[in-house]
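TA notes, week 10

Several of you asked for a full example with nothing omitted. So below is the full record: C-alpha cells for the whole chain, then the designed sequence directly under it. When grading your own attempts, check the secondary structure regions first.
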C-alpha cells in the first residue's frame, strides 16, 4: 500500500447526539462501537507513523449550511427545541417529524456538528494538512436543499463538496458505495460540470429512494456528471466488485479528479435489515482497498471519506468501518484478526448483544473482470452493460461491443 503521510479522523464523542431515538435504525451506538473497536485495535495515535490522528471540528455555520440548503429548511430544523410541542403540520413538508426523520431536541446542533466534521475533513485534505481524512459519522447523502430525507437532516457531503468548489477545486469526484442511491448529492450537483457523482447501489426498483438508474447521467447543463450502477437484489461480493471495476473505475480514470470524496455506507451487507444485497465485510474491505489505491493513482492521494448507512449495529458496522478507518490510515487490518476481548465486553455492556469474534466473515472476495466474458441474460451483467452504455460515450470510453458478446 502506498505511504500516506499524515491521516486524520475528525471525531468528538459529543457528536453522538445525532440520535432519532431508541427505536430508530440509525442508532449512534454503531459509531461509538466503531471508534471503540478501532481504538482497541491500535488504529489511532497522535504523531504515530501509520496511525490516524483524531482531530476536532467546529459545527458548521448557518452560512456554510446555506451554500447548499434553503434558509427555510435550516430555520425549520433549528426551530425544533421541544419535540412534544412542535408544529408537525408546519414541519412535515420539510421531511421532519416523519418515521424516517423523527424530531429530537437539539437536532440542528447535532446535524451541524456532523456537517462541520466533513467540512474539516475536506479542509484537511484540500490544504494538504492530511493526505486522507475521514468523518465516520458523516455520509448523510439523502438530504435535499429544501427537505430532510432518509435519516439525513443536512447533506454534509454536499456542503463539503461545495466548500471545495468555493476554494478552487475544479474536478471533484464523489463516489458513493452505500446500498441506497446517493440521490441528494447527485441532485445538488446535477448541473455542475465540476462534480462527478458515482453511485453503486441496489436498484431503486427494490429499495429506497427509488432512483438512480443507468439512464440518469446528469442534468442538461452537465450530461455525464452522474454515473449510476443499479444492481439487482441479492448481488454478492463477486458481482459487486465486478460492477465496481467494470463501470466506476474506468469512468473515474477518464474523469481524472483532483480530489476524491466518498460515502462508505456498509448497509449492503448480507445481515443488514434494510437492504437486499449479499455483501460480506471482506468484500467491503476489498472495496476500501481499491478506493484507497484509486485515490493515490488519480488524485495524488487526496481522499475524504465518510460513513453512511449501516444498520446491523453491532455485528457489521463496527467491523466494516474499523477496516475502513485502518485503510484510510494506510495500515489495513488483517481480515482474520480477532476482535479484542475488551471491546466484546463493551458491546455486551452497551447493547446486551454478543459481539463478533473476528473481523472477517470468512469470505475471500474474488471477481471476474468484464473483459473475461459477458452474459447479458443475467440481471447483473445486464445492469453493468446498461451503465456502461449510458455513461461511457459521455466520457470518451470505448464500449467494446459488449451488446453482442456473451459468456461461453
Amino acid at each position: 500500500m502506498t505511504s500516506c503521510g499524515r491521516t486524520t479522523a475528525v471525531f468528538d464523542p459529543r457528536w453522538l447526539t445525532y440520535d432519532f431515538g431508541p427505536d430508530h435504525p440509525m442508532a449512534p451506538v454503531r459509531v461509538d462501537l466503531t471508534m471503540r473497536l478501532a481504538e482497541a485495535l491500535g488504529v489511532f495515535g497522535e504523531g504515530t507513523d501509520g496511525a490516524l490522528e483524531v482531530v476536532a471540528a467546529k459545527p458548521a455555520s448557518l452560512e456554510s449550511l446555506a451554500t447548499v440548503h434553503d434558509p427555510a429548511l435550516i430555520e425549520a430544523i433549528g426551530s425544533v427545541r421541544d419535540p412534544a410541542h412542535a408544529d408537525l403540520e408546519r414541519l412535515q413538508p420539510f421531511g421532519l417529524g416523519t418515521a424516517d426523520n423523527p424530531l429530537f431536541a437539539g437536532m440542528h446542533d447535532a446535524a451541524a456538528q456532523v456537517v462541520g466534521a466533513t467540512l474539516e475533513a475536506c479542509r484537511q485534505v484540500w490544504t494538504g494538512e492530511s493526505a486522507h481524512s475521514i468523518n465516520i459519522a458523516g455520509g448523510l447523502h439523502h438530504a435535499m436543499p429544501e427537505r430532510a430525507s432518509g435519516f439525513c437532516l443536512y447533506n454534509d457531503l454536499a456542503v463539503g463538496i461545495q466548500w471545495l468548489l468555493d476554494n478552487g477545486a475544479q474536478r471533484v469526484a464523489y463516489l458513493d458505495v452505500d446500498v441506497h442511491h446517493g440521490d441528494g448529492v447527485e441532485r445538488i450537483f446535477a448541473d455542475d460540470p465540476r462534480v462527478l457523482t458515482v453511485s453503486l447501489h441496489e436498484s431503486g426498483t427494490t429499495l429506497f429512494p427509488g432512483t438512480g438508474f443507468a439512464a440518469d447521467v446528469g442534468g442538461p447543463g452537465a450530461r455525464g456528471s452522474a454515473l449510476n450502477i443499479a444492481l439487482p437484489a441479492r448481488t454478492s461480493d463477486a458481482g459487486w466488485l465486478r460492477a465496481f471495476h467494470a463501470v466506476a473505475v474506468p469512468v473515474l480514470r477518464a474523469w481524472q479528479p483532483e480530489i476524491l470524496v466518498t460515502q462508505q455506507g456498509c448497509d449492503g451487507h448480507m445481515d443488514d435489515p434494510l437492504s437486499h444485497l449479499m455483501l460480506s465485510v471482506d468484500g467491503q474491505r476489498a472495496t476500501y482497498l481499491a478506493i484507497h489505491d484509486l485515490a493515490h493513482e488519480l488524485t495524488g492521494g487526496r481522499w475524504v471519506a465518510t460513513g453512511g448507512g449501516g444498520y446491523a449495529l453491532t455485528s457489521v458496522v463496527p467491523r466494516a468501518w474499523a477496516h475502513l478507518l485502518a485503510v484510510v490510515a494506510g495500515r489495513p487490518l488483517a481480515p482474520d484478526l480477532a476482535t479484542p476481548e475488551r471491546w466484546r465486553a463493551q458491546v455486551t455492556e452497551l447493547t446486551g448483544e454478543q459481539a463478533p469474534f473476528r473481523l472477517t466473515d470468512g469470505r475471500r472476495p474474488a471477481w471476474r473482470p468484464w473483459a473475461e466474458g459477458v452474459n447479458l441474460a443475467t440481471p447483473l451483467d445486464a445492469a453493468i452493460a446498461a451503465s456502461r452504455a449510458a455513461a461511457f460515450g459521455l466520457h470518451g470510453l470505448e464500449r467494446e461491443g459488449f451488446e453482442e458478446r456473451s459468456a461461453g
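The mean pLDDT is 95. Use that as a sanity check on your answer.
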